[in-house]
Write a structure and sequence with these properties.
With 287 residues, this protein is of the alpha+beta class. The chain has eleven helices and five strands, in the order βαααααααβαβαβααβ. The longest helix has 21 residues.
Length: 287
């Protein structure tokens, strides 16, 4: 199947209603000043390497459900040891150039508003000790995030939400691939070239987010998402984009998959089904 492209060069203003007491606190944009203490005490353990609006309820619920449903199905990736409390998912750690410290503090503040600073501090320090001792693998990390509904889940869920909002607010292109394929078609290459040469993209940095479907062999699908990222990066280089202007993640089938709710926020072609949306690379231009 030929890869298909949908290009966005508009900025979206996301709205919605609050989810409740905890999310209302986050939506207000208030940051608890004591988050600075957590950053100092747990340096490197929280997010790995180092914009406020009301919460979109449908989008947040979609991300919540996705976090609860992740299953590695025997993929060795699930057995990898985790060394970051909130950075095991590549999109929630400091390596994601679309997120910043204010996003992290916003959602830490949400957890503090819900259960109090002392409980958050104690819990995160205990998590940091377990991670340092090599006691937690990736699969166990996701299980913990799903069950830790007062602290870890709100932070990880909130950061994935912020990531989706950031992608939506930047020029972006969704490239979809056929099953088992990492090849881009001629039409898609032309669209990519126009996107790179456009006024909104000229001189920009580019982020690539490779996804794989949850249908079939998950280890293969995760590996395939890496090939797709490398394929798109090679074409960007061919179009004159320097390698140091391109960063990327092969997210594979880890959250967030592009659900119908996320597809609406991204303005993805409604003709794309779940399989097509997630056999893809999202190309984002940012500065």
């Amino acid at each position: 199947m030929r890869a298909r492209v949908f290009m966005i060069v508009v900025f979206l203003a996301l709205g919605g209603v609050s989810l409740g007491v905890t999310e209302q606190g986050a939506a207000s944009g208030d940051i608890d000043p004591r988050t600075d203490d957590l950053f100092a005490d747990l340096e490197g353990s929280l997010f790995g390497v180092d914009g406020d609006s009301q919460v979109d309820e449908a989008l947040m619920e979609s991300i919540h459900d996705d976090l609860e449903s992740i299953d590695f199905h025997g993929d060795p990736k699930g057995e990898e040891k985790v060394d970051s409390i909130f950075g095991a998912n590549p999109l929630t750690g400091d390596a994601n150039p679309l997120l910043n410290t204010s996003h992290q503090k916003r959602w830490l503040s949400t957890a503090i508003a819900g259960v109090g600073y002392d409980k958050v501090e104690k819990h995160l320090k205990r998590q940091a000790e377990d991670l340092k001792a090599g006691k937690v693998n990736r699969s166990e990390w996701y299980d913990h995030v799903a069950s830790c509904t007062k602290i870890c889940n709100p932070v990880v869920q909130g950061l994935l939400y912020e990531h989706v909002r950031q992608v939506a607010s930047h020029p972006h292109v969704l490239l979809t691939f056929g099953t088992g394929s990492s090849d881009l078609g001629t039409d898609d290459l032309r669209t990519m070239e126009r996107f790179v040469d456009s006024a909104v993209s000229r001189g920009a940095q580019f982020l690539l987010i490779g996804r794989g479907s949850r249908t079939g062999n998950r280890e293969f699908n995760r590996t395939l998402s890496a090939r797709r990222v490398e394929s798109v990066k090679a074409e960007l280089n061919r179009f004159g984009v320097a390698s140091d202007a391109v960063s990327g993640f092969w997210l594979g089938y880890e959250p967030p998959q592009i659900s119908e709710e996320i597809a609406l926020v991204y303005r993805v072609d409604g003709a794309f089904g779940d399989l097509e949306r997630n056999q893809s690379v999202m190309l984002v231009a940012f500065r």
